Amino acid sequence: MISVVVDIDDTLISTDRRMQGVWREVLGREIPLQAVETLATGQLFEKFASSNQKARVGELQKRFWDILLCLEDVGMELVDLEEPIPFAAGVLQEWSEYCALVYLTGRPENTRELTLATLRRFGYPTQNIQLTMFTLNDYARARGDNPAAPTLVEAKSRLFSSIAKQREVGRVVDDYPGYFPIYKQFEVPDRIGFLRPKRYAPQQYIERGATRVVESWKPLQDDLPRPP
After folding, report:
1. pTM for the structure as a whole
2. Average of per-residue pLDDT across 170-191
3. How many angstroms separate the CA atoms of 192 and 127, rounded?
4. Which CATH number is 2-14+84-220's, of 3.30.300.30, 3.30.413.10, 3.30.450.20, 3.40.50.1000?
């Protein structure tokens, strides 16, 4: 059976309000939602952190990741702020009747049950699926614990390689252009970029290896994955 690999964050579930909550905890102030939607992590810190906070960048960087990775209780509470991407659940329910569904996410293993509960809450298939997640060690570099540790792109490449060795992957859907060289390397025939228009342009996906870009899940209704 052909497999479809789908990212979760900002592909199936909008994390913008959750991220807004993380920044509120880290910086002690409200960050405009528009800024969270459009700016990268470093840009947000540079724009909204106080001088005192910028002098404590290492400490706050670690706390940012601890909250985001749900190593603090408040991080788990902030998951309630997430919202489903329109039409995605219905599309995946349809696809799951014809293909094997694999969720490949940067969410860490310590959030497995929380992630499954969130997927169920929003109506996504959670039976007869594979959920492949990062480990906390995959974030050693991002958290500042080990500058020589693998990057997040390298971590995702390792996990996708394992999936591709076990399955015939016919389609992948992801919102981050930086991951598409991985999918192109493994010659996935249908590489769909799920556009985040406030942060990326369609061409950024195509240049990195996407075969097409969609702005909504709605056009993917009845677009069933086909064997290569």
Report:
1. 0.95
2. 97
3. 24
4. 3.40.50.1000
